[in-house]
Specification:
About 40% of the residues lie in helices and about 30% in strands. By secondary structure, the chain is α/β, with parallel strands linked by helices. Strand 2 and strand 3 form a beta hairpin. The radius of gyration is 15 Å and the shape is globular.
């Protein structure tokens, strides 16, 4: 069983943002993080999940994702994202990321667990630290999907 812990942050919404990911497989632990100059919290929450899944190279692995994002967890667990996909993500924010998520999601056996953010969960707290630190880095690259304006409709 692979565990993926994720968090996203933005300093302003929109504003500079980042994500943090912890991958854990038995005794092996890896951290992933990056930041962008202008994005949203929801984009960073979703991108954290995507990056975590993309880091798993062996298909079909059982994976549990722990996220404090109701946006992400509910969209998948309540199957809303599959309806959005059928409609081409028309009128939905972050369609570029949801399409990317679905491509990698289909390759694995994924279960989501929602956890309360900022409630002392050690891995969630660490992911938050990574996300915030990345959002505060100088010379951040653009979040092309957000800054293009194509994928940030409500």
């Amino acid at each position: 069983m692979i565990e993926i812990f994720t968090d996203g942050a933005s300093r302003g919404n929109p504003g500079p943002g980042g994500y943090g990911v912890i991958l854990r497989w038995g005794p092996h632990v890896k951290e992933l993080t990056a930041g962008f100059r202008k994005t949203t919290n929801n984009r960073m929450e979703l991108l954290a999940v995507i990056v975590g899944l993309e880091a798993i190279t062996k298909p079909g692995m059982p994976i549990t994702i722990f996220s404090d994002s109701k946006y992400v967890v509910d969209a998948v667990e309540k199957r809303w994202v599959f309806g959005w996909q059928k409609k081409g993500f028309a009128g939905k924010a972050n369609g570029d990321l949801w399409a990317r998520f679905l491509r990698i999601y289909a390759k694995h056996n994924v279960k989501f667990v929602w956890i309360r953010g900022h409630a002392g969960h050690p891995e969630n707290e660490r992911c938050d630290e990574l996300a915030v630190a990345s959002a505060l880095m100088p010379n951040l690259p653009p979040d092309e999907g957000f800054e293009s304006g194509m994928f940030n409709s409500k």
